[in-house]
Amino acid sequence: MPYGAIASAKIPFGRLWLYGLVLVGGVLWCGGNAQNYNAPSKAVSEQLVGAINELARSLGQQLGATGGNSSKTELFSPVSIGSMMFLLLRAANRDTRSELLDVLQLQQYRKPGGGNIPKNFARLLKEFTHDIAGKGILEQLPSWHTATGCYPTIDGVDYEDDDDNYLDEPIQPNVVQLANGIFLQNGLINSTNFVKLAKELYQAQIEQVNFSEQPHAARATINHWVNESTRGRIEEILSDDLDTSTQMVIANALYFKATWETFFNEPQFTRPQPFFPDGEDHPSIMVPTMFAGGCYPYYASPELNARIMAFPYRNRTTSMYIILPNESNRSKLRQLQAKLSSTELDRLIDRMRMAKAIVQFPRMHVTNTYDLKRALQQLGLRTLFDRTKNNLKINAPTSRTANRARKLYVSEMVHKIDLAINERGTEGGAVTITAMERSLPPVNFRVRGPFLLAIRHDPTKMLLFYGAVFDPS
Predict the structure, then answer these.
(1) Among its keywords, does the record have Cell membrane (predicted)?
(2) Per-residue pLDDT at 293
């Protein structure tokens, strides 16, 4: 997969490393030929994106219910989890497939002819992982994408302050790498059709290992794959050897690195500022806080009693959206999260316009680990984890089991993330703030209380990263 060069370390960036793990007592099955699918369509692709992003809201609420009032952050990767679930969908028998479709709110795909999930998802993954600019298959971008700044253009001349044009480095592409790995017990699969579909449509690596006799070597193989897939940022996903009865591991890894379009200040200007996890009438904590000034996509929503600001990365394919309730506290953020469906989030982003702003935002480095098995069971996905059910198909039966159904189930599903958002400033950050101080901007976006964070690939609308932040320390 081609990737653009990574920008100089002097340029600020947001980094995202995350990975998920599924331990499965079985193997995947795929029928048919990968060539016999209808062409991707906008309508089906929109439904798949909506499914992933709506799953983000459902999982966010479920993780919030589990964490109660003690959680500091509830950040996870919807696209990573979603790709895992679409891959499991290819292996599911009737009852499990039905539950997966229910959880994804894609019930229309229970019957043949409702559309093609693999082909459309593959197209979305290609646009996402290759960081392709433009409207893509969804044929839509937020209207703020076409704006060049906050200043008027008169007689074809842009009167943007020249001091903002300080950056002479060429714009580098974002680095996006989503990888699915399927690690099978030796001899459990011989389907060339499935191997082809997994590689071509899900960008999945298929590899056979020996869990039963060489669990340590199997763990080393999986950890090596994760290390390579994240360009060395994640050294391992498994800290202990797997049980010798494990027959398949599905792992996915997402590596994302990009530079900000408008820089935060240089690190030496970041300083501790109060942050109020449960509102400004409760005790505060001190967190390292970054500052910036510039022209940002922004919208104040009276319906949601909240404000949203976008922090685009330099080629404007991916943006970090911060949704901040007015006078934010934990309770208000929970209420906002419940209201913010996939459709409502799209509507909110579509209403954004460019505005001059001074920004205050906490520097963050978050690491989270989740038991997705428990969360998904609460959402209605149960047979997948039931060892008494034959809920996953197999394509290479042995003579010993050819005449009876195998009980194939998922034993564990773990999701881990590592997210860093910092300034990594160049000289340009201070120049921007100086330019902004010449006139008072209409927007003062100070993030001093709980907020929702969504890192979104705008051409596909897929959420790389999403969740509530109550305490960024």
Answers:
(1) no
(2) 87
Do residues 20 and 251 make contact, with C-beta atoms less than 8 angstroms apart? yes
CA 470 → CA 15, 20, 284, distances in Å? 20, 23, 11
Q: How far is CA 85 from the centre of its chain?
A: 14
**Cα–Cα distances in Å, from 372 out to 43, 169, 414?**
29, 42, 6
Say how far residue 124 (Cα) sits from the centre of its chain. Answer: 13
Strand pairing class (175-185; 204-209):
parallel
Fill in the amino acid letter for 32: G
Question: What is the DSSP code string of 171-206?
Answer: PPPPEEEEEEEEEEETTS---HHHHHHHHHHH-EEE
Please write the tens of the pLDDT for every residue from 90-112: 878 889 999 999 999 999 998 86
Say if strands 271-275 and 285-301 run parallel, antiparallel, or are unpaired. antiparallel
**Cβ–Cβ under 8 Å, residues 470 and 341:** no
Residue 65: strand, helix, or coil: helix
Q: Which helix (H) or strand (E) holds 88?
A: helix 78-89
On whether the CB atoms of residues 14 and 421 are closer than 8 A, the answer is yes
CA pair distance 203, 382, nearest whole angstrom = 27
Domains, the chain: 42-141+172-257+366-417 (3.30.497.10), 260-361+428-469 (2.30.39.10)
pLDDT band at 423 (very low <50, low <70, confident <90, very high): confident
The residues, any chain, with a CB within 8 Å of residue 314's CB and separated by 6 or more, are 7, 171, 172, 174, 258, 259, 260, 261
292 touches 361 (CB < 8 A): yes
451 falls in which pLDDT band (50, 70, 90)? very high
pLDDT of 113 higher than 50:
yes
- Check whether 10 has a pLDDT greater than 50: no
- The residue whose two tokens read 């193989």 is 221
* Structure-token match 């509102």, residue found: 279
Residue 353 CB contacts under 8 Å (≥ 6 apart), including other chains: 143, 144, 147, 297, 298, 299
**Which residues are registered as beta bridge partners of 368?**
417
**Number of other residues whose CB lies within 10 A of the CB of residue 9:** 9
User: Could you tell me how many helices (H) and strands (E) the chain has, helices first?
Assistant: 10, 16
Please give the pLDDT value at position 441.
61
Phi-psi region of 58 (alpha: psi -120 to 50; beta: other; left: phi over 0): alpha
User: By three-state DSSP, how is residue 117 classified?
Assistant: helix
Around Cβ 387, how many Cβ atoms within 10 Å? 11
C-alpha separations of 107 from 101, 114, 344, 383 in Å: 5, 10, 21, 17
CB–CB of 145/136 below 8 Å?
no
